[in-house]
Amino acid sequence: NFSAEAVPQAPEDPLFGLVRAFKADQHPTKVDVSVGAYRDNTAKPWVLPVVKKVRTLLSGIGFPLAPLLHVCGHTVYAISVADEILRNDPNLDHEYAPIAGIASFTSKAAELILGSGSPAIPEKRVTSVQTISGTGAVHLGALFLSRFFTGTKKVYVSNPTWVNHNQIFSNVGIPVAQYPYFSKQTKGLDFDGMKAALAEAPERSIILLHACAHNPTGVDPTLDQWKEIATLIRQKNHFPFFDTAYQGFATGDLKKDNAAVRYFVEQGFELVIAQSFAKNFGLYGERAGCFHFVTSPAPDASETVTRVASQLAILQRSEISNPPLYGARIVSTVLNDPQLFAEWEENLRTMSGRIIEMRKVLRAKLEELGTPGTWNHITDQIGMFSFTGLTEPQVLKIREEAHVYMTKNGRISMAGLNTNNIDYFAKAVDKVVR
Ligand code: PLP
To answer: Which domain of life is it from (predicted)?
Structure first.
């Protein structure tokens, strides 16, 4: 029998607990490097200029499209999808989206992660469902596999991984095992450990892979290493489950950041992808994401996809009925318009460029201070996060003494650093490491 008294108190989510503690801290030089959200050089959230532009457009007010050319005294405007929306539908309504989401969003989301030239698309080997951001996509994938996967129902995640992976899979009854990933010695990839674990895992296990900018370590395999990983996965008939939350955010180049996924699809793997637009569009709270199922080349591939799509629709209907519109409308407008797309790429370069610069400065400052240890991993690692190597006691000490907030595994969000606080931060690290 259910008894409310018997419901035990669950621990607070450690990350969101940290956010609360940071907000309550009144110290004037406090630094937040805990949350994986981009901040500008003044430590403020950054609304991407391209998103601002599309927001105005979607509000029905419209914005003066930038004139492209002046021809014989006439102004020539870019004819864009954005322009079309504005002319045809100035007052967008708030009706339900289709169960699988906005088609102009999901189709472009697939092109973005698979590459627009991917043969999987014209061969109808892909089905895509709009989800509640990346979390919803991982969940829908996990739920789908819990119902229909006929291999070993066990998922192997990297040690460490994004903490939510563990509960998302275990909540749908898929046990979670780990493969070694991070080497404490080199602060880089434990490639041998990873390969050994993939080789030892039971045949046809589910292997969760971070497509780029691994969270929390910032350590990614090289393309050659990805090729070896693919060979191993093929040998053991494992099932790849890609999580992509940082495309374009890692290197600033969308095509570099989807290289692993593209390689696996080129190799003909059947796989799934959970895709988030939270980070690369700065749309964290709008929950724009997508789940993709890609099947291998086969004469009956499109029938497989149709059947899978029908089951995904049933799962989606019972969970959320239909996904939210606003974030997906923004993303879709950008992805469907070459001019806005180019602006988005520029915004991505601004974000990734600032983070790469902060990596360089932090490493230089620690080396200048002669902080014990090696600091090359700060610039070797990629994306939003760096695994500093700080121990839990050091993390607690730096919080207490310097009001610097990071997760207890020593992960820092590089976006929390800026030209105003990086000197203070480096000195605080130096002090606790000594
Ligand atoms: N996957 C990874 C590896 C992440 O780091 C995140 C966010 O931190 C997500 C998925 C999902 O994020 P969201 O649900 O906000 O899109």
So the answer is: Eukaryota
Q: Is 276 in the pocket of ligand 1 (CB under 6 A)?
A: yes
Kindly tell me if the per-residue pLDDT of 63 is higher than 50. no
Question: Could you read off the pLDDT of 351-407 as tens digits, one per residue?
Answer: 999 999 999 999 999 999 999 999 999 999 999 999 999 999 999 999 999 999 999
Confidence band, pLDDT 50/70/90 cuts, at residue 164: very high
Query: Cα(114)–Cα(294) distance, rounded to whole angstroms?
Result: 10
How far is residue 339's CA from residue 76's CA, in Å, rounded to a whole number? 14
- Using the mean position of ligand 1's atoms as its centre, give its distance from the Cα of residue 36 in Å: 9
The finding on whether 245 has its CB within 6 A of some atom of ligand 1 is: yes
User: Cis ω on the peptide bond leading into residue 175 (within 30° of 0)?
Assistant: no
Rounded to the nearest 5°, which phi and psi values hold at 126?
Answer: -125, 135
Cα dihedral 301, 302, 304, 307 in deg (nearest 10): 180
User: What is the ipTM metric for this complex?
Assistant: 0.99
Based on the residue annotation, tell me whether 279 is a catalytic residue of this protein. Answer: yes
Model's pTM, two decimal places? 0.93
